[in-house]
């Protein structure tokens, strides 16, 4: 008969084995609980992400919790209000009537041509200029339905309500200059002439050679490349991208001086000293002003400026483009290409000038005299 194996187990080993058994038993999770936890975490992350990308409701001027209305305004056909400011000689006494379109992160007070035009030119030529707050800026109501076409139609309504006549001139600076392309497309019959001052370029306009777009795009700071890329490909992320703190956002929104050339920096003290209305620009919120500008300006357009026909085939008016050859915000190489494709554009390239050249002494006088043919 075989003898049984006698194994001795120490008391310490027995206690350790018992503790392991109890621990394993006590931490055993119910079936499927891990999946449920992951689903809850995923839902929480989605909820946070959704809230993070939702812009706040704009504080419309005149609403109970919004800024006060102080400007002259017209009521548009769709019920929105458009604020405006008049400059120069009285409307009824004017020989030349001009609608000025301000740039990015600006308002009706930023009518550089009107503000720097010499009194002698104003009186000699009898020039009247009206500037206005583009939708969402200053005291103009936001337009969540804004398109490339809607702003020219706003301008047409403004001109009609102010009785500027069947034809008027338009001048636009920077992002406002980009709007002038839309005016040439949608209301050419209302224009007596047009001037584009350092107009912002959309890198996704059809007709640009790929190598030129790449070269111009890479001349921007990396953070600005990302800002316009997000605005084009993921506009629903524009608010989050320009308000998050993890990565550098648009240097233009941040008012960085890194995007100014040496001539711009010389003009900067003069510009800053006269700009005592900065809070007014964004007072209704940044989404329907700054961010909407980015989404429209760098979104998918219904047309390309390079496909436009001459709005003045009988030389009854002219279109002018002015650009600095050292502009660090809007690369000049794409403006040159546009001017080459549109031989009816009168193109003026300013050596050594940056983006802010309209503020240079005497520049507004030259722009207006050339525009009206005096």
Automatic annotation (TrEMBL):
SUPFAM superfamilies: alpha/beta-Hydrolases
Entries under InterPro entries matching the protein: AB_hydrolase_1, AB_hydrolase_fold
Segments crossing the lipid bilayer: 29-50
A Pfam family the protein falls into: Abhydrolase_6
Residue ranges occupied by any AB hydrolase-1 domain in the UniProt entry: 98-359
Keywords per UniProt: Membrane, Transmembrane, Transmembrane helix
Protein name: AB hydrolase-1 domain-containing protein
Lineage: Eukaryota, Viridiplantae, Streptophyta, Embryophyta, Tracheophyta
